[in-house]
Design brief:
The protein has one domain. Helices cover about 85% and strands about 0% of the residues. The protein has 2 helices and no strands. The protein starts with a helix and ends in a 10-residue tail after the last helix.
Length: about 100
């Protein structure tokens, strides 16, 4: 009977070691799986940030080009104050005479 208990104890001990090792393996597998998922997510985020950075550079280029264009057009545009004054002088001289129709606004 004593031998039977010893054999049963040894088998229980081996079974306990096996149970502990499998639980550790399962934890390790789960941990490795989470690490792989996190790596995949970080790759996705990195790709998205690369796209956003490229778009940011492109928009900055477009903004600088637009600023250059507006600056050149502002330089080319002439002041209209002198033209307005000459038009007013012309109206005073020639449009206000009797017999001529008044200017419609």
């Amino acid at each position: 009977m004593k031998l039977w208990k010893v054999i049963l104890g040894i088998v229980a001990f081996i079974g306990g070691i096996f149970a502990v090792s499998t639980s550790k393996k399962a934890d390790k597998k789960e941990f490795d799986k989470k690490i792989k998922e996190n790596k995949a997510e970080t790759k996705k985020v990195q790709e998205a940030t690369k796209k956003v950075e490229a778009e940011k550079k492109e928009t900055k280029k477009q903004i600088t080009e637009a600023k250059k264009k507006t600056a050149t057009t502002k330089k080319q545009v002439k002041s209209t104050t002198s033209a307005k004054k000459t038009a007013e002088n012309f109206e005073k001289k020639y449009r206000k005479k009797p017999g001529r129709p008044k200017k419609n606004a």
